TrEMBL record:
PANTHER family: AFLATOXIN B1 ALDEHYDE REDUCTASE (PTHR43625), ALDO-KETO REDUCTASE YAKC [NADP(+)] (PTHR43625:SF40). This is Oxidoreductase. GO terms for cellular component: cytoplasm. It comes from Streptomyces sviceus (strain ATCC 29083 / DSM 924 / JCM 4929 / NBRC 13980 / NCIMB 11184 / NRRL 5439 / UC 5370). GO terms for molecular function: oxidoreductase activity.
Amino acid sequence: MTMRTRSLGTTGPQVSALGLGCMGMSALYGDADRAEGIATIHAALEAGVTLLDTGDFYGMGHNELLIGEALRTAPPALREQALTSVKFGALRGPDGSWAGYDGRPAAVKNFASYSLQRLGVDHIDVYRIARVDPDVPIEETVGAIAELVEQGYVRHIGLSEAGAQTIRRAAATATVSDLQIEYGLITRGIEQSILPTTRELGISITAYGVLSRGLISGHFSADRRLGANDFRAHSPRFQGDNLRHNLTLVDELRKIAEAKGVSVAQLAIAWALAQGEDIVPLVGARTRERLTESLGALDVVLDADDLAAIEAAVPADAAAGERYPAAAMEHLDSER
Ligand SMILES: NC(=O)c1ccc[n+]([C@@H]2O[C@H](COP(=O)([O-])OP(=O)(O)OC[C@H]3O[C@@H](n4cnc5c(N)ncnc54)[C@H](OP(=O)(O)O)[C@@H]3O)[C@@H](O)[C@H]2O)c1
């Protein structure tokens, strides 16, 4: 298979049309198998995936160390094709608690120094604050990353979960390659004002939650038991009546997927790919099996009738439950 590529922004790098989100290999979806995570990264690179997404706070450095090991143990040609996309700024406690965000310029440079070491690289390809720090003007945070670009430690500047006004301010400060934000069949909020803004400004979307964290993957069931260290145990969309309702949407998607001879996950990922050349889905596969399924989405062709059938089965506002618990929603500049 030859991997298709897409550009991150009008001036950003060419990346594989699907990126690999590595978060679940370390944290937030319950226990993960480190060796399988590394094998999944190697398999992704072999398949032509170039974009590896992480955050320095995923397992408090664990995810960057894991990616660093995967890069070190990959054949040199594959290592060289890998592009790292790193989020910073989330403050954690030793017990894993969350303590807000820090986007001050000195903090930005401090975070970057540690990430470079953990990843074992001399530069980060795309660097972004995970959540806009309400106490620091975005111009200062982005300006600090721009200095890292000038110094060669960072190649491109990204944003994460920023709203339209913040995107404009950031883009007026420096060239922004992409906005990382939740976007998928049952998470369509960005279509109102954020997507028109990024399109006007030539900024791409690296979309996470394309499978709504597994909810619309076709593999999730109402009787699945989630540990306390699993984000989904606390996510409104995975609770009680919300979960039962959301799984009925999956049943509708399954009918369309089966008629096309593809899996539900492949249909959902193909839908995101079909929303525009500026959309790069980050798939959260943490096993080689899930990765293979995800990559199969690249071969799924959705015509206008398919897209209309999907839209009819799952209208834009069909999901029950917010995409984050209330406390986490408060940190989303994109929801203001
Ligand atoms: N900027 C931000 O605020 C932000 C927030 C969240 C994530 N992210 C980034 O985006 C990446 C992707 O996000 P996500 O993990 O929420 O995405 P996702 O792809 O919607 O969900 C991944 C989950 O779906 C399940 N799944 C079932 N079938 C799958 C398949 N064929 N391929 C992949 N996953 C499948 C996985 O299952 P199992 O439980 O079976 O492993 C995993 O728990 C993350 O790794 C992270 O790098 C960014």
